[in-house]
Amino acid sequence: MIEKADIEGLLVITPARHEDDRGFFSETYNAANLRAAGFDKPLVQDNQSYSKHKGVVRGLHFQTPPSAQDKLVRVLRGSIVDVAVDLRVKSPTYGQHFSLVLSASNWKQLFIPVGFAHGFCTLEDHTEIAYKVSENYAPAHDQGLRWDDPDLAIDWRLTGAPILSPKDAELPLFAEFSSPF
Predict the structure, then answer these.
(1) Catalytic-labelled residue, pool 18, 53, 61, 118
(2) Residue 40: its pLDDT value, please?
(3) Is 61 labeled as catalytic in the residue annotation?
(4) Fewest CB atoms within 10 A around its CB: which of 14, 73, 148, 149?
């Protein structure tokens, strides 16, 4: 099932799970289904992220053109609050964010098109996510925004201090950012 989110371009995908006594089978990616929903670029790289602890915040990350990435995010183990911030200048939702819980148990995925910053916070220890992207990693185009920007007012569902990388702790605020999208 593919549902449109409150912000244009974002898709919430819940693949069917076929369960029996052995376990389950699920088709977690189908290019034809994404094409039918309006996305027709190939996804060229798979990434996997493991976080040991609850409260790990990664993001908000994006790549700038010509290496901007579409992302299809899913959780393999544990759970996250997944966040996408609209960076498309001409969008009526510019600067707004969408968030939802993705988990191994709810089986939801989030498709995030080019023009969004993406981040997540782990809600459980030993959380693992996988995501497909439409462009390879390009360090020269790697950028981000502060996860705790008061203008974005994102509820990360933290119950303590976040666990951040040094890079993520130093990213600029949204007000300091000039969008290339």
Answers:
(1) 61
(2) 87
(3) yes
(4) 14
* Residue whose token pair is 């666990």: 163
List, in sequence order, every residue forming a beta bridge with 84; answer none if it has no partner. 98, 118
Give residue for tokens 């908000």. Answer: 60
For 99-144, what is each residue's pLDDT tens digit? 999 999 999 999 999 999 999 999 999 999 999 999 999 999 999 9
Q: Which of 18, 29, 50, 131 is catalytic?
A: 131
Question: What is the spatial distance between Cα 78 and Cα 105, in angstroms, rounded to a whole number?
Answer: 8
Number of Cβ atoms within 10 Å of the Cβ of 37:
14
The residue among 150, 153, 155 whose CA lies nearest residue 173 is: 150
- Gap between the Cα atoms of 122 and 52, Å rounded: 9
Question: Which pLDDT score is estimated for 140?
Answer: 97
Distance CA 143, CA 47 (A): 17
Nearest to 48 by CA among 25, 27, 77, 70: 77
Annotation marks residue 131 as catalytic: yes
For the chain, helix, strand, coil in percent to 5 are 10, 40, 50
In degrees and rounded to multiples of 5, residue 35 shows phi and psi of -60, -45
Question: Where do the domains of the chain lie, and which CATH numbers do they carry?
Answer: 2-17+28-176 (2.60.120.10)
